[in-house]
Amino acid sequence: MSKLLGAVATICLVIGGIGIMNIMLVSVTERIREIGLRMAVGAGPGDVRRQFLAEAMLISLVGGAIGILVGIVGALLVGRFSDLPVALDARVVGLAAAFSIGTGLFFGYYPARKASQLDPIEALRQQ
């Protein structure tokens, strides 16, 4: 049962990560002029990369927090309405939050890298 739950959690993380990557790629495409303007006034590629990585981490952290809250409420309801023992551990919740942030970092790196490699002049020409 533990291996099955681990496999389901892994599949969910990959699917969520792909969703984050798609959202961030669309964000980069829609904000090309903004990125070009930032770079034209002095922001370096590292600054743009950090901005997009922070956005990806925030998206994944919000999704992870919602998942953690749903999990805690579900566990409490199962404990209240059934005879199954429920044990909530803060370390497990912290580990879930860390995996959520890690997923955002991993899957947000490609869109952040793509945004940081834009040429400011070409980006400002985009409509």
How far apart, in Å, are the first and last alpha carbons? 53 Å
Structural class, from helix and strand content?
A: mainly alpha
Major sheet characteristics: none
Find the count of extended strands (DSSP E, 2+ residues).
0
Rg value: 19 Å
Multimerization state:
single chain
**Helix percentage:** over 70%
Q: Order of helices and strands, N to C?
A: HHHHH
Please tally the helical runs, counting DSSP H or I stretches of 4 or more residues.
Answer: 5
Residue fraction in strands: under 5%
Mean pLDDT: 90
Given as residue ranges, the uncertain stretches (5+ residues, pLDDT < 50) are none
Give the overall shape. Answer: elongated
